Each structure stands twice: as structure tokens, then as C-alpha cells.
Amino acid sequence: MTMRPIGHAGEPGCHCWLVQQCRQVTMFVSRIRCGITPQMHVLCIVIALAFVLSRAAIAQDGSPPLRESVTLDVPLLVAKQFANIRGLIEQEQWSDAIAALDHVTDEHAASLVEASPGRYLNAVDYARLLITQLPPDGLATYREQIDGWAEQQIEEAKSLHDDASLQVLLRDAFASSWGDDALWLLGERQWETGDISAARQTWTRLLPLDDETTRLDVLSYPNPEIPLADVAARLVMCSIAEREMTRAASELQEFTQEFPMAEGTIAGREGRLSEILSEVFEESKQWSPADSTREWPTFARDTSRNACASTEQVLDGPHWMIPLAPISVAQWERERADLGRPAPLSRFPVVSVGTVFFHDGRSIRAVNLMDGKPCWPTDDEADVGDIYPPFKPVLQPLLRPAVGVPRFTSTVVAGRLYALTGPSVLTLPESRLQPSPSRLVCLDIADGEGLLQWFKTDEDLFVDGWRMTGTPAADGERLYLPLMRTAPQPEQGIVCLSADDGSFIWQTRICQALTEPLSGRIQLGHQLLTLSDDRLLCSTDMGAIASLVPETGVIRWVVTYPSTALSPTERSEENLNGLLPPLVSEGVAFVKPNDSDELMAIDVSTGATLWSRSLPSHVVHLLGATGRDLYVSGDQLWCMETATGQMVWQFGHDDPAGFGYGRGVVAGDHIFWTTHDSLFTIDRHAGRAVQRYPLAQVLGVAGGNMVLANDRLLIAGTDHLTAFGLTSTATATTQAGSDSPK
Prior knowledge:
Radius of gyration: 28 Å
Shape: globular
Mean pLDDT: 86
Number of strands: 45
Low-confidence stretches: 1-68, 336-340, 733-742
CATH topology of the largest domain: Methylamine Dehydrogenase, Chain H
Largest sheet: 7 strands, antiparallel
Helix content: 25-40%
Structural class: alpha+beta
CATH architecture of the largest domain: 7 Propeller
Number of domains: 3
Strand content: 25-35%
């Protein structure tokens, strides 16, 4: 296994400048070595190298900071084998190429290979893409060898109603003659179970690629036999079922123009497809409004981090408010003179079964969603809803100066609450005097009123310096946590634990940064993973984005990008440093690393970057994606096209006092979003305010991080948790003020 430096996409790592300088030193010494002794020759080299290294040190301390790079485990042997396979394909030696693909995927199933500059694919996935782009003769040879097994697999799936068998077929024999049948059947199963988004992704694999897309970028079935009109009709039905009416109307118009005479069966009706779809579209306008979101069990509502609630309501006014102790960090490098509030927005509540849970690293609280009172009250008059720990915690002060933004999240699944308590430490310089201050706790909130079931510390799980750096993404049986360690260089990894007892299942190292850790300081922060279908996604904030298999921890792909390290002061600015796990919608991951100005759209199946663009100012929140629109925020709020990244509209003020403040919520046709002083309800289609509530003027509080559950909108500020009620649009009374931003 070789360690390969990765810098910019298609460029060498950032150490290449030093290599060039060393080459120049060698050339210089070789020119003067005649007439000098060997000892003087060595002395010349030492002096020259000392000069080069001093220049490198100066460059590191200067501005702008150097771009970071990472190393990945990329076996040279596997790369050579795939180069040979591509040669066999060019020579049309189909049988030899297919045999070689079988061999490399059997022997190196977990290895990475460079598919394109800055993009590294698992060997199995890369082989599957190569097969889909074989010419007809090559594809026919492949199918002669695989079709018998594929037919048995799909017949078994049909007889046993086994979706897992379909997934295995699509993984191991995607381009077989039965692959299109498997996609069609799997999409039908997903539709029947109500997983409309998954059905859309599956059926989309049956669409032909446009002229600008290559098969190495997008996984698409080659030449399906299923009629294109049948596939397109089902995609229109997906938009109608998801109540994306603008998108559905546009797709229906396109369908009618392209397939005016196509007939078939859909929605339990038989006839001309365009007429049936038009009827269903009109009927859907009379369907009962979707129920409002009743649960908000993790950051951004679900593990895909696509926080789009279904409610069609607007604000009704405040219902309750409880005070919070401001988060304070000693020796914190942070300047917020413009707002005069030193405390950060660090709390991100979750809601489950009518209870709000939140914490500040010291204690976890539980209050009733309807009235804000302690969920499990005690005889203590000072009870504020603390459920963990059962005693007043003894706070251990950090022994080093701190930079960064502390953040505290929770995850609720299957009657348990998981949280990483402690001071939200991201990196901790090595010290024998201070063990890891964090612990992962599991509380019973179904029957135990917050009773501790188990806890784990970093020392319990690891012996080589790894630290847990965020709350787990959970699927009920397993927990997935991000890891970091700083010696000798910063490294990113992921660990999988049992949800029942926290026992170890697997651990994967993703990459290592070719930079020194933050010297002499503790870095505060928080990381979160994204779990969507069969993918686990991690944005490292050190030059790489990775996708893994949740069951095994095998890396599916890694995408690298130019990395620009934030300065210590910048790391402590909330408007520069966000909590930004990848957001997944319809098979696309939207990623905005903190060490890059670029917002990227990446195909989840292949790791191909579909588009990348920067915005006028920093993005610190990925709010949600609904159909054709992506909503992100920072100083302002932006709506972008999911397919292209083009700007649709922008909302917000241009002066710091009116900048966005906290994480908003996408809810039905609206977006709830706060500035420091006001709460706005924004029409997400038009980008204009339909309501404005003056938080500072009426309640004396600022904006904050929002969640929505069971007709309540919660705002977690620096010193208050405020609950607003929601009502139907027809009865709303608080209208947009005249000073709402353009």
C-alpha cells in the first residue's frame, strides 16, 4: 500500500515547491563541487537546505495561508492493473479485459484507484463504470458470462420479495441484461413503501445520458429496454407525490411535448400517459395538506441532513421562552465587536415524542415541547430539566488556549439519546497532564427518564491518539462517529460502534493532512457524518470528501480539492466556520467544506463533481434541497438550482447588523430564517418575506438555530430557547415589515 500526496485536482501536493527548491540546491552544488573537498560539499548542501527551509517557514507564517493537501492509501499495483485493462479494452480484447476486471475486483475489492484528477474510486465501483461504457461487442461478451447468474438473482428477488437480492444484482451485475429489470422492480418496491426519493434515484438510472456527460461520471444503465416514456411518467408521479407542484408542472409539460401519444398503466389507470398524469396532477391540488413534521431527532432532522419539513404553516407568535446559560470559552480568540455578543450559537436541539432535548457539554436538558417545562420534574425548586448527569458536574478547565467554535448536537433513535459531552474539542495537543475531556453517552429516554445506559471515552476505545469529534449518525443498530488525531499530522477517520453497548465494530482511516497541527492550542469544533441509504459521507475540512460503506467501512470514493487553512482567528468566527455535514438529495451530495470557498455538487454513486461554485460570501449552513432548488445561508440566504448551481434568488441585508444569524428551516413553501434582530418567513419560490417578527423589539432576544416539530418552531439563541406556534396561512396576522431585506 502506497501513500500518495494529493493537492489540487490533477496537481501535485503542496510540498512540490519545497521539492523544486531542493532540486535547485542540488544543481547549484553540482556546479561548484569541482575543486572542493567532500566535507565542504556536504556543508554547502546543509547551508543551502537551511536557507530553503527557512523560506518555507516564512511562507507558512505569511498570508494567505498555504493550501493543505492530504495523503490517501492508493496501491500502485491496482493502478497498473487498471491501466492494463484499459489497454485491453482499446484493443477490443473483451474476454481478457473482463477476466482481468474479475481478478482485480476479487483481489483488491477495498482498494482505491484514480478515476480522474482529484477523484478516487473503489476498485469494484470503477470496474462497474468501465463495464457500462463498453461498446456493443464488449458488452455482449460481458453479458454472455454474467446473464445466467443475474437471471437467477432477479427470479429469487421476485419470488422472495427480497430487495437485498436486487441490490446485490445491481452491485455485481449492473450492466447485465437483467440490470434494467432490477432497477425497474426496485423502484416499484421503493414507491410502494413510500420512499419516493429513493424510487426517483433508482428510476433515474434508466434515463439516457446527455452528450456532455460521460459514463465514468454518472452511473446509468446502457441501452435499457424499458420504454423511456414509462420511466419519465414515473418521475413526474414522484414530483406530484412529493407535492413539488412547480417541478411537477414543468415535468408534465415536457412529458406531454415529448411523449404526446404514449400509452401505458400508471396510478392504477390505463390509457394515454399524458392524460392520466394531467388528471392526477389536478386531483393532487385537492389532496389534504401534508402533516407537519412531528419529530426532529437529529441535526438537520434526518441523517441525510436534508432538513425540509412538510408543514405549510406560518408563524402564530411566541408560546414560551426559557433562559439558557451562555456558552463561555476561556482564552478564546474571537472578535464580535459589531454585535457585542461574545457567546456563540452552540446549541442544536432535537425533538422526540413531544420532548425537546439539548445540551451545552456540561448537562443535558429535557423540556416539554408544548410549554417548556421540565419533562420529568423533580421536587427541586431549581429544576430546569437536567437529566444528565444526575449530579452537578465538576468542570475541568482546559489547560491550553482555545480557538474554534464549540457546538453541541444530539441524536435520538429507538428510544435512546446519544450525545458527545464535554467542551466540544476537535483537536487536543498531546499532553500527559490532561486526558480526553469528552465522553459519548447513551441515555434511555423511552422508559428510563434519561437514565444512563452506557458511556465511552476516547481512552476506552482507542490506544493510538484517535478522538471522537461529533455526535453519531445512527441507524438504530449502529453508530457512526467522526474521528481525528493530530500526531504526527492531522488525520481523519470514522468508527462504527454498537448502538446497544458502544462496543467496537470497525474503524477506517480516510486521509492524513500534510500540515502541522495547531501548535499549542486546543481547537474547538464539531463534526457530523451523513448517512443516506447505503452511503456514509464525511467532509474532512482538510482537503478531502469521502464516501464509505456503512456495513464494512470500506471507502467507496474520495474527492480531493484545493484546501485553504483558516487562521486561528478565522476558526473562531461563526460566519466563516460552519457546522456543514454533506447534504444528500436525490443521489447528489451538496458539500461546502470549511477549508474551501467552493460549494460542490457530487454524484453520490460515482464521486463525480457535477458542479462547483463560490458564492458572494461564506456559506455556513446547508439548509435543504427540495426538487430543483437548494437553499444555503450565511450572511445572506440563497436559492440555487440543484442541477447547475446557478443562483435563483438572494435574500438579506448588506450590512453586518442585518446578516443572517443561526440556522434556518425549510418548511413547505416557506423558509424560517433569522437575523440578529428579526425572524422572517420567506416564500421559498419567490425569495421574498411574507412575515417579519421583531425578536429584539418584542421579546428582547436574538435569532438562533431553529428546529420545527409538531406545530412548534424552536429558536436556540445564546441565552434563551424560544418556542413559536404555527398556524395556517389564512389565519396568519404577523405580516412582513417594511424594513424586510430585498
